[in-house]
């Protein structure tokens, strides 16, 4: 695929920028301009038993075989926000041929009039809600989707800001749960939570899956070492996009309200096309019937 017109090559010299802690805008937007779609809100358990809320978006198909060929994307939000970050994005991904689950991690708040229900439960239970505390929620989401929704299907982990950094770490630590990844504005944001300053950059050395990385233009210094540490992959398996414009932090860069959102979509879509060419994983062999937290969720979703 010809990406030279879309992707800016990484400069050899490192920038002098300092990695900054990600934060939501001072005033989170309260409305989205999204195509009509359907979704169902579902719940499942995290590793410590906390109930996680997520929105499930599935496209219409004509047969189970067609469903099995659709890759699945698990979407994680940025700091201070919720699954509402993807109310506009997920329907577009469905139109592009993907099923999606937009997850509320316990480290978050609200955006687009969607309150983070997982965070509310964690706060009520007096559980910690740091970025690193949300990692177990992300693992649980990917594991549940792999077992119940994407068994034998290509599974993509997609993160925004702090969660995009954790997506890279999960790709390294749990390769059985991540076939490909998308990272909007990753960085080593976790030093104040007791992690080494290169916690993500060092994990990147072990990431072998294909992926797509992007950010606002000013944020390149946050992820340049991470990118440089990624092992090389064949067949155009790993790309990044740096906008010519100022751009935006996290997955909201794709929101239609931003004039440069089209450039992000134009860079991302060829990678999503590439995901369709990946060899699908072998289906899991189940020794017994298990409770499915997503049962009936793909049949009659709610109107969004």
From TrEMBL:
<dbReference type="InterPro" id="IPR022742">
    <property type="entry name" value="Hydrolase_4"/>
</dbReference>
<protein>
    <submittedName>
        <fullName>Alpha/beta hydrolase family protein</fullName>
    </submittedName>
</protein>
<feature type="signal peptide">
    <location>
        <begin position="1"/>
        <end position="16"/>
    </location>
</feature>
<dbReference type="InterPro" id="IPR050261">
    <property type="entry name" value="FrsA_esterase"/>
</dbReference>
<dbReference type="InterPro" id="IPR029058">
    <property type="entry name" value="AB_hydrolase_fold"/>
</dbReference>
<feature type="domain" description="Serine aminopeptidase S33">
    <location>
        <begin position="70"/>
        <end position="187"/>
    </location>
</feature>
<dbReference type="GO" id="GO:0016787">
    <property type="term" value="F:hydrolase activity"/>
</dbReference>
<keyword id="KW-0378">Hydrolase</keyword>
<dbReference type="Pfam" id="PF12146">
    <property type="entry name" value="Hydrolase_4"/>
</dbReference>
<keyword id="KW-0732">Signal</keyword>
């Amino acid at each position: 695929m010809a990406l030279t017109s879309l992707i800016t090559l990484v400069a050899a010299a490192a920038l002098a920028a300092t990695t900054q802690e990600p934060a939501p805008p001072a005033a989170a937007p309260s409305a989205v301009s999204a195509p009509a779609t359907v979704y169902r809100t579902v719940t499942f358990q995290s590793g410590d038993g906390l109930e996680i809320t997520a929105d499930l978006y599935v496209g219409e198909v004509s047969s189970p075989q067609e469903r099995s060929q659709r890759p699945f994307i698990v979407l994680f939000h940025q700091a201070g926000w919720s699954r509402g970050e993807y109310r506009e994005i997920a329907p577009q991904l469905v139109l592009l041929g993907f099923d999606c689950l937009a997850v509320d991690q316990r480290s978050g708040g609200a955006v687009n009039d969607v309150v983070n229900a997982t965070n509310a439960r964690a706060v009520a239970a007096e559980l910690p809600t740091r970025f690193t505390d949300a990692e177990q929620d992300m693992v649980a989401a990917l594991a549940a989707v792999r077992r119940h929704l994407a068994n034998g299907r290509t599974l993509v982990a997609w993160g925004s800001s702090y969660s995009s950094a954790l997506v890279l770490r999960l790709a390294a630590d749990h390769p059985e749960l991540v076939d490909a990844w998308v990272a909007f504005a990753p960085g080593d944001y976790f030093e104040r939570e007791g992690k080494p300053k290169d916690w993500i950059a060092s994990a990147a050395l072990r990431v072998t899956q294909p992926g797509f990385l992007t950010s606002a233009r000013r944020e390149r210094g946050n992820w340049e070492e991470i990118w440089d540490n990624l092992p090389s992959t064949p067949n155009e398996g790993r790309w990044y996009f740096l906008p010519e414009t100022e751009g935006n932090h996290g997955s909201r860069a794709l929101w239609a309200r931003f004039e440069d959102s089209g450039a992000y979509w134009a860079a991302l879509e060829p990678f999503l096309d590439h995901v369709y060419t990946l060899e699908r994983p072998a289906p899991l062999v189940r020794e017994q019937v298990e409770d499915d937290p997503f049962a009936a969720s793909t049949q009659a979703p709610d109107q969004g």
